[in-house]
């Protein structure tokens, strides 16, 4: 069950109080008299997962390496090398063998592969609940068995098989442990610019032991490829269990499995009533063959003269004029004339623009049919609600610029999708789904309350006006919307959520632009084109790019920074740039004149303050090589750019290398290779992305999740490198948690914390949020004035000021000294101010009573104290 991080005093009372009998008035202590001062209400905090201890044990040459989570609620302060708060008692085979104070790792040199381990938190000398027992793994990794979907054959007769691709995590059943959500990609998965059929996509949910809980079969009407399916796994409604939200279509169904692997239930999603009445069904297949595409174009061309853009004079009056050919047909076009012009377009005009325009072979795309957004139960896979995907495609990409440039690519710009999660209100997570970023750019956000998916806001740049949709350059030009028009061409193949302006609510960093939490455009970054560019001196967008990193890169500056690379070549002012995340101001950058496709950040040089940044800038040019957080060139060489990982114990950053058929490795810039993940592969071709890099088990270090070469298992590697640094699980940092959920999106990017995480970091700048510890058992006495309860403040008040106490008198059932009504008196509850040390209950029915006290602060409520001694009230007081 998820525990709210913050609570009000009223909420704390509601949590512990039963309904009081009307006659049982509760007297107030001197500090809380009737009509007097009340403790101030606490603010509401951010909704995060309630995770278990995440204890893991690995057999190493030095002994049994143990690693476990420190929860954010257990961290109360900072020291030079880490956070302070809970220490941990380590148990082997039931006997306590250590008390660990400086980290959340321990090496038991005397342990064996048969030993059983538990750890228990120790706060203010009080030992808490121990973790479930674990036994050591003989390998440095954990294999999660996977159920590989059966392959198939496309309508073109091409066979395909499946491999595990992106992975996300969520606690789908509320037990405090993560489940693993795996996307299966067919071997014929395509980029949106590539022609051909694909097999369907599957989304599986697994327990750590490989139990398959459910499978979402997206069906034939969702094409397979990095740009098409973005799936969000998160506890959106705060019930302690994660949902899965993703784009669906007719033919999408979910399958729930029993523990023995047999099918328990399968069901198609619910199509809107108006779609069913219109004749749409789950048997529909919208994949286009080459003849289908020709027929589609005929219908598009027949309607040319009725298009609003043609009627208004914005576009040429005839298709021949659009193609630069003599007008030879009457309008509106007859079916025969439209067919003739389609053949001319496919066979003559398109190839004249580019030899790569082989539209007679255009097949496998989906440019028609309903599009939906569906919420699925994370544990069962059951559909919870399906709504229309907004905005819809509108057309096959004609308005989006897919026919305008030399390379004619129907279904390309229109089908570029992104997703993410953001705490837009500072408390609850919202889902983000975006469509388009080269020309028309749209971002929609949604809230799920457990019953309904409600759109919070939708941002739309509007289409980029073109004078000729078959010959124009729509990139880098404004859309039609007066507020959001400059959003066009600024989006990347990913997005991020971070509180860039420090207001407690996360913004959406949309590449070279940022949207405020309310959907307003915070900024869209432009700069002057330099000498050698297409238009020196002109203002231009920083523009689209493939890699973006939002973090506290330079701790000497306030706030966060954004490091980006850009592919605009001679039309972009920078090939790489570091910007202030709050304003979009470029702090440093360099022009490249070419597509700068890769970039990364991380602390790879401990002798240099802050994180380092690097990119694929041309060798020998300005800003090539390894750069400091202030832009100084440190070396001409630089690490890889596929994915980073926090693996080492010294807070530095390592790089995951290995793409395509190359075995993945974890490499340190100064120490070399730290791990070779034999028998595994990365994903997404030359991108070389692991399935996931995230802090999913053990201490604050990140795990490497990669598929085995045959995809029969997901292999999770855990660091056993010693560390003397103590930090709560990164998943309890809101920015890191939402960025982990976003990592699966398109061009996978690392997740970063909201604080500077690097060697030499200042732990006092790590955000803390911990409720008070329980107070000691209170005192209690009964006299003629009533029943008085006394207490002392908690040994640890938490990370925010105390706002008061909730005091509860509880009767012993069945031992009432009065006559009662057969059920005995009910508990009595009152509140007290933060400086109070006693309360007196003046209206107490006869009976045997004990008291408990709960301390309340801006960070939440403590657990109830141990009960006091029992007092006997022989006659009702008051």
From TrEMBL:
<dbReference type="InterPro" id="IPR036116">
    <property type="entry name" value="FN3_sf"/>
</dbReference>
<protein>
    <recommendedName>
        <fullName>Fibronectin type-III domain-containing protein</fullName>
    </recommendedName>
</protein>
<dbReference type="GO" id="GO:0016798">
    <property type="term" value="F:hydrolase activity, acting on glycosyl bonds"/>
</dbReference>
<dbReference type="GO" id="GO:0000272">
    <property type="term" value="P:polysaccharide catabolic process"/>
</dbReference>
<feature type="region of interest" description="Disordered">
    <location>
        <begin position="859"/>
        <end position="878"/>
    </location>
</feature>
<keyword id="KW-0378">Hydrolase</keyword>
<feature type="domain" description="Fibronectin type-III">
    <location>
        <begin position="771"/>
        <end position="877"/>
    </location>
</feature>
<dbReference type="InterPro" id="IPR013783">
    <property type="entry name" value="Ig-like_fold"/>
</dbReference>
<dbReference type="Pfam" id="PF18370">
    <property type="entry name" value="RGI_lyase"/>
</dbReference>
<keyword id="KW-0326">Glycosidase</keyword>
<dbReference type="InterPro" id="IPR049366">
    <property type="entry name" value="RGL11_C"/>
</dbReference>
<keyword id="KW-0624">Polysaccharide degradation</keyword>
<dbReference type="InterPro" id="IPR003961">
    <property type="entry name" value="FN3_dom"/>
</dbReference>
<keyword id="KW-0119">Carbohydrate metabolism</keyword>
<dbReference type="InterPro" id="IPR034641">
    <property type="entry name" value="RGL11"/>
</dbReference>
<dbReference type="InterPro" id="IPR041624">
    <property type="entry name" value="RGI_lyase"/>
</dbReference>
<feature type="signal peptide">
    <location>
        <begin position="1"/>
        <end position="24"/>
    </location>
</feature>
<dbReference type="Pfam" id="PF21348">
    <property type="entry name" value="RGL11_C"/>
</dbReference>
<dbReference type="Pfam" id="PF00041">
    <property type="entry name" value="fn3"/>
</dbReference>
<keyword id="KW-0732">Signal</keyword>
<dbReference type="InterPro" id="IPR028994">
    <property type="entry name" value="Integrin_alpha_N"/>
</dbReference>
<feature type="compositionally biased region" description="Low complexity">
    <location>
        <begin position="859"/>
        <end position="870"/>
    </location>
</feature>
């Amino acid at each position: 069950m998820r525990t709210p991080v913050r609570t009000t005093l009223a909420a704390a009372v509601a949590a512990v109080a039963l309904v009081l009998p009307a006659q049982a008035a509760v007297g107030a202590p001197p500090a809380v008299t009737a009509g007097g001062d009340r403790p101030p209400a606490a603010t509401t905090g951010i909704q995060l997962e309630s995770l278990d201890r995440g204890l893991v044990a690995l057999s190493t040459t030095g002994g049994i390496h143990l690693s476990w989570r420190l929860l954010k609620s257990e961290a109360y302060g900072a020291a030079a090398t880490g956070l302070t708060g809970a220490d941990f008692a380590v148990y082997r085979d039931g006997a306590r063998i250590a008390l660990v104070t400086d980290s959340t790792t321990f090496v038991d040199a005397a342990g064996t592969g048969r030993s059983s381990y538990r750890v228990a938190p120790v706060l203010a000398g009080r030992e808490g609940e121990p973790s479930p027992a674990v036994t050591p793994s003989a390998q440095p990794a954990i294999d999660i068995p996977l159920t590989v979907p059966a392959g198939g054959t496309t309508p073109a007769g091409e066979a395909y098989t499946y491999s595990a691709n992106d992975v996300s995590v969520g606690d789908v059943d509320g037990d405090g442990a993560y489940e693993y959500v795996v996307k299966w990609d067919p071997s014929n998965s395509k980029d949106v610019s590539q022609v051909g059929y694909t097999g369907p996509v599957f989304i599986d949910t697994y327990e750590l032991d490989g139990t398959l809980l459910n499978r979402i079969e997206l069906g034939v009407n969702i094409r397979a490829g990095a740009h098409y399916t973005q799936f969000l796994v998160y506890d959106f409604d705060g019930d302690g269990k994660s949902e899965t939200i993703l784009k669906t279509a007719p033919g999408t169904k979910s399958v729930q499995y029993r523990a023995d692997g047999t099918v328990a239930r399968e069901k198609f999603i619910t199509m809107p009533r108006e779609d069913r009445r219109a004749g749409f069904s789950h048997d529909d297949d919208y994949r286009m063959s080459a003849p289908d595409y020709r027929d589609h174009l005929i219908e598009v061309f027949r309607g040319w003269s009725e298009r609003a853009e043609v009627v208004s004079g914005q576009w040429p009056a005839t298709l021949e004029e659009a193609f630069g050919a003599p007008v030879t047909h009457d309008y509106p076009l007859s079916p025969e004339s439209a067919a003739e012009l389609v053949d001319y377009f496919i066979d003559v005009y398109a190839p004249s623009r580019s030899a790569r325009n082989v539209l007679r072979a255009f097949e496998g795309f989906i440019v028609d049919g309903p599009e939906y957004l569906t919420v699925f139960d994370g544990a069962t896979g059951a559909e919870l609600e399906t709504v229309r995907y907004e905005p819809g495609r509108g057309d096959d990409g004609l308005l989006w610029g897919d026919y305008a440039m030399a390379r004619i690519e129907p279904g390309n710009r229109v089908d570029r999708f992104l997703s993410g999660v953001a705490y837009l209100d500072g408390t609850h997570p919202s889902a983000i789904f975006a469509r388009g970023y080269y020309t028309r750019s749209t971002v929609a956000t949604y809230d799920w309350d457990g019953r309904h998916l409600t759109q919070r806001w939708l941002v739309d740049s509007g289409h980029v006006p073109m004078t000729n949709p078959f010959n124009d350059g729509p990139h880098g030009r404004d859309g039609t919307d007066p507020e959001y028009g400059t959003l066009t061409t600024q989006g990347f193949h990913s997005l991020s959520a971070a509180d860039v302006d420090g207001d407690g609510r996360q913004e959406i960093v949309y590449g070279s632009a940022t949207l405020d939490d309310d959907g307003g455009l915070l900024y869209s970054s432009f700069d002057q084109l330099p000498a050698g560019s297409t238009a020196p001196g002109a203002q231009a967008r920083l523009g689209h790019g493939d890699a973006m990193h939002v973090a506290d890169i330079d701790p000497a500056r306030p706030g966060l920074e954004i490091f980006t690379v850009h592919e605009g070549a001679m039309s972009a002012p920078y090939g790489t740039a570091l910007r202030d995340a709050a304003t979009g101001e470029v702090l440093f950058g360099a022009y490249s004149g070419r597509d700068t496709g890769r970039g990364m950040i991380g602390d790879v040089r401990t002798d240099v303050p802050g994180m380092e940044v690097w990119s694929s800038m041309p060798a020998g040019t300005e800003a090539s090589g390894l750069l400091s957080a202030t832009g100084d060139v440190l070396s001409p060489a630089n690490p890889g750019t596929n994915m980073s990982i926090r693996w080492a114990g010294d807070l530095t950053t390592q790089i995951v290398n290995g793409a395509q058929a190359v075995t993945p490795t974890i490499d340190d810039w100064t120490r070399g290779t730290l791990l070779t993940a034999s028998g595994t592969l990365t994903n997404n071709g030359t991108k070389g992305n692991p399935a996931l890099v995230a802090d999913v088990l053990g201490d604050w270090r990140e795990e490497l999740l990669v598929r085995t070469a045959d995809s029969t298992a997901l292999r999770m590697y855990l660091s056993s490198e010693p560390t003397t640094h103590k930090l709560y699980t990164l998943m309890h940092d809101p920015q890191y948690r939402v960025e982990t959920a976003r990592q699966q999106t398109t061009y996978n990017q690392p997740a970063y914390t909201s604080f500077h995480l690097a060697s030499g970091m200042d732990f006092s700048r790590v955000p803390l949020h911990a409720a008070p510890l329980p107070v000691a058992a209170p005192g209690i006495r009964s006299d003629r004035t009533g029943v008085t309860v006394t207490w002392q403040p908690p040994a640890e008040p938490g990370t925010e000021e105390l706002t008061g106490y909730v005091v509860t008198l509880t009767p012993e059932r069945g031992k009432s000294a009065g006559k009662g009504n057969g059920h005995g008196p009910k508990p009595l509850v009152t509140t007290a101010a933060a400086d109070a040390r006693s309360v007196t209950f003046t209206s107490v029915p006869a009976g045997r009573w004990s008291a408990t006290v709960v301390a309340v602060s801006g960070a939440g409520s403590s657990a109830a104290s141990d009960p006091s001694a029992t007092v006997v009230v022989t006659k009702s007081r008051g």
